[in-house]
Design a protein that fits this description.
Jelly Rolls; 2 domains; ten-stranded mixed sheet; 9 helices; 26% strand; binds fe (ii) ion
Amino acid sequence: MNVVSQDLGVLSDWQDKHAQLFDRQNIKLNHRLRETGLFTEDAIGQLIEKAAPHQYSLNTMGFQKDVNEWRHGEIQGISGREVINTIRAGRLWLNLFRIMEIDSKYDRVLDQIFGEFESFIPGLKTFKRNITLLVSSPKIQVYYHADIQGQSLWQLEGKKRVYVYPANDAFLTDESIEKILMQETEEEVPYQTWYDDHAEVHDLEPGQMMHWPLYGPHRVENHDCLNISVTTEHWTREIRNEFAVRYGNGVLRRIFGLKGLSTRPKGIHVYPKAAATLAWKRLKFEKARQVEKKVDFRLDPGSKEGILDIEPYLK
Ligand SMILES: [Fe+2]
């Protein structure tokens, strides 16, 4: 069985109130994704073996909140199970992107998830859906950041502490959002430890998921165990308009030095800004400004912390 029974559904404790809260407040729900059998270590090991280099990103991460020690690595010549066990013993983070394109069984799961959201939430219409698998070491963390599209986090194995901060200017400025949108940074943004006083903090256990409002900054700390999770992403017309306006602002600021631009995702200014966005992308300015990833280690079960230094190359 690769899809959760339609009678039961993926979302097992959805209530009417969640339709109003979705995308406006943080919500934490129970899910039945593990019942698909697609997220066992065996199934995930097979998925890892099928992934091409462009379909994953393997990173190291540090212990200190404020310190960035982020390296990119590669997987060569070891089994999926060895990859998982090496991550279990190290301080690493594996993202497997767009797993619905690696194996169509995950596409059916993705369809089921958003089919349920759309049936529960009046007017919700999602597109450009995506599902990413995350395998991460005990005690590691994901630094404070925000994502550019609708985002949910589904816990499958292990336990993690999720800090979600208010989606407002005090915690994430328009300038930071713009940089994330324009891919000038790897989604890390300025963070102060006092932000935590204002965060909503949840321990996410297997069978639980969270969804938070667009651009809601968040960070994650794993408990002392291997963690397997997926994130799902989606776009709606509102999210796309918001993207176009903010991206367009970024282009206008960078070309003409304009200031004080509106970020409202409605109104006539949306269209010229969407055009500026397209023009900018067509002119390929974006490519030149993007962050390149330098790969400088290979995952190696026999090496200290699973890391074997290699001759760096750009990915
Ligand atoms: Fe995120």
